[in-house]
Amino acid sequence: MLRRPALLTCATLLCACALTQPSPAPTPLLPAEAVRALAPEGVLRASINLGNPVLASRDAATGALKGVSVDLAQELGRQLGVPVELKAVDAAGKSVEVVRAGQADVGFFAIDPVRGEGVAFTAAYVVIEGAYLVRSDSPLTANAQVDRPGTTVVVGKGSAYDLFLTREIKQATLVRAPTSPQVVDEFLARKLDVAAGVRQQLEADARRVPGVRLLPGRFMVIEQAMGVPAGRPPLARATLHAFVERMKASGFVAAALKRHGIEGAAVADPAPPR
Asked: Which of 30, 76, 196, 233 is the most buried (most CB within 10 A)?
């Protein structure tokens, strides 16, 4: 017969095991071949970029990941009937590398030809604006005035803005901050001329930091899409593309933007059939 302490220990262990048991996977809504193509390990690993606050962030109280990309990843896992593993990174370039290396099954990116070398994109699900921020006493008043000799522009390394401006800027000098959320702090600390990034991030920084303003309008429109490693079967990309189109058409993306209080971003137009 077991002594009372041993019985208590066994009971405690059994309770602990019960508490840590994984919840059963939901019933898949998609064909088994599609599940194998998108989540070959039986878990949907999703790379979440926290460098773009339009798409994802951490809850200040709980630390949990939240945002439209998190909602889409969870919904895709539900439709595939597999659990979801979120892999948070702090910069767009890191998210690309995680997917390129096959360490994640899907990711959320701005569509760009450079990134297409290792990632197969869907059509866009959201479009957002890239903007410039300057000091209040800056002589710059329009986006077209930025690309001039002697002007320094800081941008998040590997972000969609970095890739775009690397191609488009001919005379100004680009300076790269480690991540997009660090752009304005780098701009202030190094006394640079212009900070470039997603409008919502810069608007939040302008409320946080005195003596700065945004230039009117936008210097680019960014199409945010989902993507899979380029080496995955064609069915993986086709399934993901169809999923994105359903989420736009059903109102899921619009509802997620509203739920998370995102302004200035719009649901992308329907894409033609592929």
From this structure: 196
Long-range CB pairs of 250-256 (<8 Å, 24+ gap) are 252/71, 252/72, 252/75, 253/68, 253/72, 253/125, 253/126, 256/67, 256/68, 256/71, 256/72
Residue written as token pair 């593309």: 241
Between β-strands 106-110 and 44-49, what pairing exists: parallel, antiparallel or unpaired? parallel
The contacts of residue 5 (CB under 8 Å, 6+ apart) are none
Neighbours of 12 (CB within 10 A): 10
Q: Which residues contact 238 (CB under 8 A, 6 or more apart)?
A: 274
pTM of the shown model: 0.72
Reading phi first (left if > 0) and then psi (alpha if -120 to 50, else beta), residue 175 is in beta
